[in-house]
Inverse folding.
């Protein structure tokens, strides 16, 4: 096997300086991007075919995997391994808790919160399962499903990838690559180098896809907001201009480094998000928001396991494919880059502190977010919600227009989309550059520029191919093989943790 003989890290003398991760990942991502641009119908046809096969045969696997990852995360946090530090014993956290939280929140959620914050609850409110649209039961269903999708399950895959990378990189001194976390289970495998190359290239590819998809959604919503507020038509030309402007900004901030660029952007994100949430909480139906949140938390805890595994055994599962499976696949597709990024900013924290900090605090904020914006939309009635969800790009701005200070909220949301856009792309550029620089914590700027351009190309592809529909299909397709990598990473981590505890005892 050629790749086995090459050994893409150490290599033979002839090949030792070749960066095969960079070479193969550039070839794969560039090829897929240009196929999407030049042959959009063929691209759409193939992704749809693959999507149909996966959701028909493997949907239960996604459900069981994500629930299993959740319980595995709790096991890590509360087991005897929870007090192990992600670094040397005298290492201290590089960032304060507030800055750490704002950075992981901006990288982990970003545009999705603004894009889906009002639209998803209203969609469930209008089209609930086993309830009448617009009823009180529909409201409970809408909040419960939003909590399921954006609560702890949206963070568990990030936590497992992140804690594994931080442990192996900062405590064991290994390279900051996804494949490095698999060393404990690949030690005696004769195809070790080939497997590690495939894993790293796959991680890069789905990182590009996941972030570019989010960028595409953000671009469409920014364009929708501009059209709704100022009457400027949300055409492909406007969307292309938005992508080009933001691409220049996020590459520039990525070149500036974590301390200068990302840290400042994360603080801006947190400030804008706080202003928007607090303002809407008091302007919106405050009493209903508080009551719904408390009731929603109760439903979430009560039905967490059953809802996490919900799938119809015989009848149609179109709703499950559109919502649950899409989100689980979407979080998996984001897990390499978010996991690596939060690992990079978490040196010096314990496993318990990392797991609980990554899962609990952001989940509570996400749940509050969806209650506030969801209730603002649902409180305006069934007919309003039914009309508002017809266009995802403008649904949030339509909600704001019915409340005092709506124009200010809309402008704030657009700015927040810009900063979330830049933050997500910025952190993804850093991670991609690190992956393709043999795990270097300080990758070259030329790598950041290359991956920034490729991300922008993919965002354009998703917009050209139809936005949310192609995103849902493609996220499920590309995330499928990485689901098995997450399982392998968990096994490898436990194996190494057991070794460490045995050596200490």
């Amino acid at each position: 096997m050629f790749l086995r003989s090459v050994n893409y890290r150490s290599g033979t003398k002839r090949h030792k300086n070749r960066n095969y991760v960079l070479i193969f990942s550039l070839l794969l991502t560039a090829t897929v991007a240009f196929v999407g641009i030049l042959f959009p119908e063929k691209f759409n046809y193939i992704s749809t075919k693959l999507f149909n096969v996966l959701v028909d045969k493997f949907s239960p696997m996604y459900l069981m995997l994500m629930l299993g990852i959740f319980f595995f995360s709790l096991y890590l946090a509360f087991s005897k391994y929870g007090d192990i530090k992600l670094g040397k014993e005298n290492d201290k956290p590089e960032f304060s808790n507030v800055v750490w939280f704002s950075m992981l929140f901006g990288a982990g959620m970003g545009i999705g919160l603004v894009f889906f914050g009002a639209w998803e609850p209203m969609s469930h409110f209008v089209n609930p399962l086993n309830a009448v649209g617009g009823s009180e039961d529909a409201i409970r269903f809408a909040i419960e499903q939003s909590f399921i999708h954006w609560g702890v399950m949206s963070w568990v895959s990030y936590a497992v990838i992140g804690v594994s990378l931080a442990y192996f990189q900062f405590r064991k001194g290994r390279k900051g690559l996804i494949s490095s976390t698999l060393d404990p289970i690949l030690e005696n495998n004769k195809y070790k180098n080939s497997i590690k190359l495939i894993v790293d290239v796959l991680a890069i590819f789905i990182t590009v896809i996941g972030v570019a998809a989010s960028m595409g959604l953000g671009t469409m919503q920014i364009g929708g907001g501009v059209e709704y507020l100022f009457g400027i038509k949300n055409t492909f030309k406007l969307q292309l201009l938005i992508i080009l402007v933001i691409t220049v900004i996020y590459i520039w901030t990525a070149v500036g480094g974590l301390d200068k660029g990302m840290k400042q952007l994360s603080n801006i994100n947190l400030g804008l998000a706080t202003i928007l949430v607090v303002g809407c909480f008091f302007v919106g139906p405050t009493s209903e928001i508080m009551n719904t949140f408390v009731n929603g938390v109760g439903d979430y805890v009560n039905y967490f396991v059953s809802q996490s595994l919900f799938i119809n055994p015989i009848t149609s599962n179109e709703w499950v494919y559109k919502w649950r499976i899409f989100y689980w696949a979407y979080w998996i597709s984001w897990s390499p880059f978010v996991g690596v990024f939060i690992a990079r900013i978490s040196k010096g924290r314990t496993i318990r502190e990392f797991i609980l900090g990554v899962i609990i605090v952001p989940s509570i904020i996400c749940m509050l977010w969806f209650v506030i914006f969801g209730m603002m939309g649902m409180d305006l009635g069934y007919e309003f919600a039914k009309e508002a969800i017809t266009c995802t790009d403008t649904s949030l701005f339509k909600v704001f227009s019915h409340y005092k200070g709506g124009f200010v909220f809309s402008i704030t949301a657009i700015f927040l989309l810009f900063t979330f856009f830049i933050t997500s792309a910025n952190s993804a550029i850093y991670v991609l550059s690190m992956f393709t620089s043999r795990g270097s914590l300080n990758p070259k700027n030329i790598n950041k520029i290359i991956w920034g351009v490729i991300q922008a190309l993919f965002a354009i592809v998703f917009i050209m191919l139809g936005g949310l529909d192609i995103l849902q299909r493609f996220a499920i397709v590309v995330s499928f093989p990485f689901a098995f990598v997450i399982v392998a990473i968990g096994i490898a981590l436990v194996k190494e943790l057991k070794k460490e505890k045995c050596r200490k005892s």
